[in-house]
Amino acid sequence: MRNTHLKGTQISTQLKESLSKTLDPLYPFAARVRENLIINDYDEGVPYIETRVNTHLFEFLQNPPMELLDQCLPYAPFSYQPNPDQVPHAAVQLNTFDCGGIALGLCLSHKFIDGATASGFLRNGLQILVELAMKQEAKSKTRRFVFDAKAIASLRSECKGERVPNPTRIEALSAFILKSAMLASRSTANSRFVLHQAVNLRRLTEPRLSTYTVGNLFLFASAAYNMEHAAEMGLHELVARMKQAVGSINREYLKTLHGDESFPKVFEYIKQIEEVSTHKNLNAIISSSWLEFGFNEVDFGWGNPIWSGISGEFGSFRNVTIFKEIGSADYDNAVEAWVTLDEKIMSVLEHDPQFLAFASPNPSIII
What we know:
- This protein is an alpha+beta fold.
- It has helices at about 10-25, 55-60, 65-70, 115-125, 150-160, 170-185, 235-245, 250-255, 260-280, 345-350, 355, and strands at about 30-35, 40, 50-55, 90-95, 100-110, 135, 140-145, 190-200, 220-225, 280-290, 315-320, 320-325, 335-340, 360.
- α6 (about 170-185) crosses α7 (about 235-245).
């Protein structure tokens, strides 16, 4: 989202030209997937939509209305598509506010586009959506929480232990949100949690892949936790188990996925993740960090965005946490956590004083 002095027609023309030039080298974004297997028809193109928003951008950013964010997107996020062969991989919507400010909405398919691929698309040419969740029947709620530098430092200190003497901010935040969600879930029947952490494989391959190599180049590092011991379990114990799981996805492990036997191994891995994630006696949570993707550094010719969001509601998808930079200079070194949980669990979490002692619910973008 950005305030700009350019006229609407200038912005529209510049954006369409930028999109066209970007699609030349990144032509798979304009293609379609046939039979859920083959990328084909590279000339199908990318839908481009323009809308007017009957309010001022400043008012919208005071407390971003989560239920309205999806209206800034060209498609409903995380929705079933009856004709998948005809669904575009990318779609763009330019939203112009009464004041002249703009919000750029972008939907991307996760069939071959992960967060790093999306970053390359945006930074080298174009809100970002990723289907990183498991579909469940229960209703979910998405909430935006901000952790300032003081809260992060305090949580990192609490997470220190013999096995992890210097936890990262994402390790600390992941552990804190996981434990808080586990405690908020004590009234549910499920007694075990599984945390799936997305691990970017580009930095682990030999030779190392480009930062913007196109594809779903990540694996989940999974760690299980018993909810019965959640209250007694220290954050340092949660972090140590996360660290061990992530450490198992290394260069040596990736070497086992080479050769003629690689496809059966990958298929078995995906099958195991699916079985764990859909098990009726398990709560599976996905955690993904977008801090290094630089979405707030995107520039189409009228400067960097004031803020970049994700999605107002995740529909029937739940149990997802996505971390990103807030972007605003008013929140130096702060981290946004977009948390989606079962609505009953979220109702407990968002009113938990211990959780809110560190997390600020949906604060204003502009102070």
